[in-house]
Design a protein that fits this description.
3 strands; alpha+beta; Antitoxin_Phd/YefM
Length: 87
């Protein structure tokens, strides 16, 4: 178990992150444990999370989405614009 003070953590976050790749790092505040830094993979294992970040960011099933396909009144007619420019 690795323990570092809040002061040491603030001075060298990179070191704490490197240590956390191998095991959780306990961060102390005035000598008492206050936080735990661990890799995301370790967090997934202890939380039972099975989805990857890609799964979480994926679009929902599109068969459940309702799309409004009615044309809006504010749409412009392309042929009208092209005819006006000729002259």
């Amino acid at each position: 178990m690795t323990t570092i003070s809040s002061r040491d953590f603030n001075q060298d976050v990179g070191k704490a992150k490197r240590l956390a790749r191998h095991e959780p790092v306990f961060i102390t505040d005035r000598g008492r444990p206050s936080h735990v830094l661990m890799s995301f993979e370790a967090f997934r294992q202890i939380s039972g999370q099975t989805e990857s970040i890609i799964d979480l960011l994926a679009m929902p099933d599109t068969s459940e989405l309702e799309l409004d396909t009615t044309p809006s009144d504010s749409s412009w007619d392309r042929t009208e614009t092209l005819d006006e420019g000729v002259g």
